[in-house]
Amino acid sequence: MMARLRAAAIALIALVLVVPVLLPVVTGHRLIVVDGASMSPTFEIGDVLLTAAPTGDDLEVGRIVVVGEPGALYTHRVLEVDRDGADVRARLQGDANTVPDPGWVHQREVFAVYETHVAGLPAVLLRGAITPPGTVVLLAIAVVLLLIGAGGAALRPARRSRRSPQRADPQEEPVP
């Protein structure tokens, strides 16, 4: 029973570690952790956004977009759109900000488009799985579970089937 529980825990940890890596490759979705307060109260610091890949026509008034490059991303709402032929640009503003962002954002700068988010305790758990410290902790737990399983198997005596014949004690005299 413990072996099954240990195997299930290892499988769950593997799934939690692999899904965020495969998500962008398979579906185009990304998990992005909110690290600023400019979109409060819509998003709070630590919330995890589920975003989709940009489609090319993402700049619509009211839509929430993630702009920039990895390491320098920010998430704001489209406040105004200016269409000049094929060139589309937008002015953004964070929900907590009192003024729009300076300058305009072009469609090519959109990194992702907001779909939904996770907040509270589920966000804490999800963040723990998708950030480097959480990944290290999960990998350590998996290794410990594997070692406990391997150590337990090495220390446990071999089990016999009830049908296998009992070995005679070499010290015993045969019965006539």
What is the gist of this entry?
This protein has 3 helices and 7 strands.
Count up the domains: 1
Give Rg in angstroms. 28 Å
Low-confidence stretches: none
| Helicity, as a percent range | 25-40%
CATH superfamily: Umud Fragment, subunit A
Q: Could you say what the CATH topology is called?
A: Umud Fragment, subunit A
Spatial order of the strands in the main sheet? 1-2-7-3-4-5-6
For this structure, the quaternary state is: single chain
Strand content: 15-25%
Q: Ends: how far apart?
A: 44 Å
Number of helices: 3
**Top-tier CATH class:** Mainly Beta
Q: Which structural class do you get from the secondary structure elements?
A: alpha+beta
Task: Let me know the average pLDDT.
Answer: 86
What is the annotated CATH architecture? Answer: Ribbon
Main beta sheet: strand number and arrangement? 7 strands, antiparallel
Number of beta-strand segments: 7
What do you see in this structure?
The protein is α+β, with helices and mostly antiparallel strands. The protein has a single domain, classed as Umud Fragment, subunit A. 34% of the residues lie in helices and 24% in strands. It has helices at 2-26, 120-130, 132-155, and strands spanning 30-33, 48-52, 64-67, 74-84, 87-93, 105-106, 110-118. The protein has a 7-stranded antiparallel beta sheet. Strand 3 (64-67) and strand 4 form a beta hairpin. Helix 1 (2-26) runs antiparallel to helix 3 (132-155) and helix 2 (120-130) packs across helix 3. The model has no long low-confidence stretch (mean pLDDT 86).
